[in-house]
Design a protein that fits this description.
Layout: E1 2-7, H1 13-20, E2 24-30, E3 34-36, E4 41-43, H2 46-54, E5 58-60, H3 66-73, E6 79-83, E7 101-105, E8 113-114, H4 117-123, E9 128-135, E10 145-152, H5 159-183, E11 197-198, H6 214-223, E12 230-234, E13 237-246, E14 258-260, E15 265-268, E16 273-281, E17 287-288, H7 289-294
Parallel strand pairs: 1-2, 1-6, 2-5, 6-7, 8-11
Antiparallel strand pairs: 3-4, 7-9, 9-10, 12-13, 13-16, 14-15, 15-16, 16-17
């Protein structure tokens, strides 16, 4: 089947690679190169890099505007496949492929429509995540669903780890749907239930509130790791929390109180302690949390969030 593929982050790469093995991909649409790292070096998106490796034509555009629509429409493809491209597909591009567009979305629709489904699901405490392949329509993530698959994720998995697993599972799911569209057996059904929405995360979403129960603090840590990143303040200085888990058999600590152990830095919450094992202080690289703690003066009196 002749396809156009649109995607940008690493989570879209497994689907691109899977489809490239059995279909004719006329072009890959992705966002323009972005500045990364401290030196802000312009870097192609993960999808762009994969497309080059596969020898596929690449269209880089920040918006699917009139020019991009004309370029994609001229390819005369049968189906468009989109996975986390980062922009909206509107008419007339929506109807340009013969069979329209299908979208791989990392949630069990209609739950968590929007930009950050995995992150929001983890923050909310969801135990089961999933992927859906649906017919793209003008309304956000509201089209009929061709296929859906739930997966159990480890209770300690971060959003990054969960998304990596979903990306692999979703690649197979999408490939199955594309094959069904190609042979005329694909059937989509309307979404069932009340939708919830997953707004894009901001830096503020990563702030840990130590007054909340431990389950809620850890759920937020998982949901915002690795991006936008969990963080707090200690003695007025920002501190990124890179690795953490609920502490077992920890001494009782007031919310926000820090206490160093041989293996971790414990921080009190509303109902228990979070064991932090890796941090990144402002202006420094990532380091062992206990080493950072030992380097502080008067550390026993410090409170996170102050």
């Amino acid at each position: 089947m002749r396809l156009v593929f649109a995607g940008t982050p690493a989570a879209a790469v497994p689907t691109l690679r899977r489809l490239a093995t059995s279909h004719d991909i006329a072009a890959v649409v992705t966002r323009p190169d972005a500045p990364l790292g401290r030196r802000r070096v312009l870097t192609p998106s993960p999808v762009a890099q994969a497309a080059v490796e596969l020898g596929l034509p690449v269209i880089k555009t920040a918006r699917l505007d009139e020019a991009a629509t004309a370029e994609i429409s001229a390819l005369q493809v049968e189906l468009g496949v989109i996975v986390a491209y980062g922009g909206l597909v509107r008419e007339p591009l929506l109807s340009a492929p013969t069979a329209g567009w299908i979208n791989l979305h990392f949630s069990l629709l209609p739950a968590w429509r929007g930009a950050a489904p995995v992150q929001r699901a983890l923050i909310a405490g969801d135990r089961v995540l999933g992927a859906s392949v649906f017919q793209l329509v003008a309304e956000l993530d509201a089209g009929d669903v061709f296929a859906m698959r739930a997966i159990d994720v480890p209770e300690t998995a971060t959003a990054g780890e969960a998304l990596e697993a979903l990306a692999l599972d979703g690649a197979d799911l999408t490939a199955d749907v594309v094959s069904a569209v190609a042979d005329g057996t694909a059937r989509a059904v309307p979404q069932q239930g009340e939708p919830t929405f997953a707004a894009k995360l901001t830096l503020a979403d990563g702030l840990l509130d130590w007054d909340q129960p431990l389950d809620a603090v850890f759920a937020r840590f998982r949901g915002v790791t690795p991006e936008p990143g969990a963080h707090t303040t200690v003695a007025g200085q920002p501190l990124k929390v890179l690795e953490a888990a609920p502490a077992t058999d920890a001494e009782s600590l007031p919310p926000g109180r820090l206490r160093g152990t041989k293996t971790a830095l414990h921080i009190g919450t509303g109902t228990g302690a979070l064991a932090v094992t890796r941090v990144q202080p402002a202006g420094k690289g990532a380091m062992n949390a206990v080493d950072w703690w030992r380097g502080l003066r008067g550390g026993d009196e410090l409170v996170a969030g102050s």
